[in-house]
Amino acid sequence: YVDASEACNDLRFVLGNQGVGTGIANRQWSVKVTQYACDFKNLAPEGCTQYHFGASTDIIQTYNFAGGRHLADQNQNICIRRERGNCKICFTAIEAIDVAVSGVLADMGFNNDDKKCCGYSPAGLADQGFDCIIIPGLMKSAAPNERLGDSMCGHNAGLVDVPVGADSVTVCSTRQPFNVRFRSDTFETMGELGILGFRLVYTQNSNGC
């Protein structure tokens, strides 16, 4: 979602001029544009780049998921409307490999640790997972009184509820409005192929809140 002008709206595509391998790949795209009236009852809240509504269960994913690697310089804010009668939202990965945002943490699996995600190391290196997922108010599904860090990074272990490494689990939040933010830096290189981004299933409910 983007705010539109009544006069003119430009779409600008910034493309590199060098290819990886023997040449530049053929570029093509198809864009569908849908305009909404300013008084549309389901208008996306300010700051949302995606808005999901009308279902208590759905799938969300980063741009270019499964296209090789996620995009650079992202601040994607996926907003989810709270459906009637619900007060909690829970997230899970369909498969462990559906969460892959930080390729430099190959030995860490997936990391739920605010101190090691969404930033650089003291030396300024991207070895602590700048690319990250932020879900405000995260808590364990099995133990809702145990709060988790809001940020996660790493790859190929789904979502976890311990600081470093574990089997993929379901995590939840009662913080409203519901949203998931994805941040990435400029450095998305060929060395990070396979860092797809994420694809998650969310389910809203009223259990325990």
UniProtKB/TrEMBL annotation:
Domain (CUB) ranges: 45-205
One protein family per Pfam = CUB_animal
Q: What PANTHER family does the entry give? A: CUB DOMAIN-CONTAINING PROTEIN-RELATED, INTRAFLAGELLAR TRANSPORT PROTEIN 122 FAMILY PROTEIN-RELATED
Name of the molecule in the record = CUB domain-containing protein
Naturally occurring in which organism (per UniProt)? Tigriopus californicus (Marine copepod)
